[in-house]
Amino acid sequence: MKLEIFDHLPEGILQCEASELHKYLPGPSLINLQGQRDEVLFVSIMLHGNEYTGWEAVKKLLAEYQDKALPRSISLFIGNVKAAREGLRLLDEQHDFNRIWKLDGDSDEHRIAGQVLDEVKKLNPVIAVDIHNNTGLNPHYSCVNKTDRDFLHLATLFSPVLIQYYLWPWQNTVLQ
Questions:
Q1: CA spacing 20 to 30 A to 61: which of 10, 106, 130, 143?
Q2: SS3 147
Q3: Class of residue 135 by CB neighbours under 10 A (exposed 0-12, middle 13-18, buried 19+)
Q4: Coil, helix or strand at residue 115
């Protein structure tokens, strides 16, 4: 498994369901789309194959710009395409895509995370957003890793409930 990088949306992808992404993307993919402004917005979606919210949101947004330029450049990471095909969070042989970013392993998933981070560092994004849902009964919330004004402002555009998230789950704090 390796990271696939595209400079365009594959033809027809915006009409597919998340479970059909494997027909357009061979695996985890980074899609870099040029916008009117060069500053890049990095968006990650589908780190878990059964969490389709990000794909539905991105699909709706990009469909609005099919015949016109995006206002800003977007780098879109679509994660666990193989698990999405099966409607699962992850496959038995996979590491959890939401737990690979510390790069402390030698799995295919860890290598892909390293490739994504290397590619995104080159783009120097102005904002990074992970559109992520979960399968439990939880309120709508935003996560931030810094509590400065800009981070909090962006997060409150999505939800009034904020969670400060560090690399370790036991350090989470709920902010309201």
A1: 143
A2: coil
A3: exposed
A4: helix
